[in-house]
Amino acid sequence: MSKKEGVTRFSVSAEKSLMRQFDQLRKTQGYKNRSLAVADMMRDRLVEHRQSGGDYDAAGTVTLVYDHHSSHIQQTLTELQHDFTGMIVSTLHVHLDHHNCLEVIVLKSQASAIKKLADRLIGTKGVKHGKLSLTSTGKDLPT
Ligand code: NI
Questions:
Q1: Which letter does DSSP use for residue 126 in this model?
Q2: Are 65 and 128 in contact (CB under 8 A)?
Q3: What's the whole-number average pLDDT of the chain?
Q4: What distance in Å separates the CA atoms of residue 59 and residue 63, rounded to the nearest whole number?
Q5: pTM for the whole thing?
Q6: What is the pLDDT of residues 36-73, one digit of tens each?
Q7: Ligand 1 mean position to 96 CA, how many Å?
Q8: Centre of ligand 1 from the C-alpha of residue 93, in Å
Q9: How many angstroms separate the alpha carbon of residue 3 from the centre of ligand 1?
Q10: Could you state, in order of their start, the residue ranges of all structural domains in the chain?
């Protein structure tokens, strides 16, 4: 291991077939070298691990797809969002077709609070598909 201006170098041993597949994947994903690809994987694992925790500052997006003709859904979703203006940063609404709407709600709060609100939004009767993408605020994540 050698250190140079805050960067740590280390060597990794892996099966040739694993390395070959990894190199193919990182090229497909546009990584110019293994270091960049591995560093992104490390950050991804850190974020993933923290998502299983609870009381830390986080950001997230909730994506909802629903039929706005479904009874009371629009009203329920709007009322829910008005109750949590402190953590909702922005909402994007797209009218997909005559029936279907796509809503993306951007949240910033404690991870546990984001999860709780996301569950309520996704669990609202009439939501066809809902997904929470929880991520870091970026502050505590090394580059
Ligand atoms: Ni709409």
A1: T
A2: yes
A3: 90
A4: 14
A5: 0.72
A6: 999 999 988 887 767 666 788 999 999 999 999 988 99
A7: 7
A8: 6
A9: 54
A10: 14-51, 57-136
CA of 136 to the centre of ligand 1 (A): 29
- Of the pLDDT bands very low, low, confident and very high (cuts 50, 70, 90), residue 4 is low
Gap from CA of 21 to ligand 1 centroid (Å): 43
H helix runs in the chain, sequence order: 16-28, 34-51, 73-83, 111-122
Q: Return the bridge partners of 56, or none.
A: none
Domain 57-136 architecture:
2-Layer Sandwich (3.30)
Give me the mean pLDDT over the 3-7 stretch.
Answer: 71
- Region 109-116: what's the mean pLDDT? 92
Strands in 127-136's sheet, in edge-to-edge order, are 88-95, 100-110, 57-67, 127-136
Query: Structure tokens of 76?
Result: 């329920």
122 Cα to the center of ligand 1, angstroms: 16
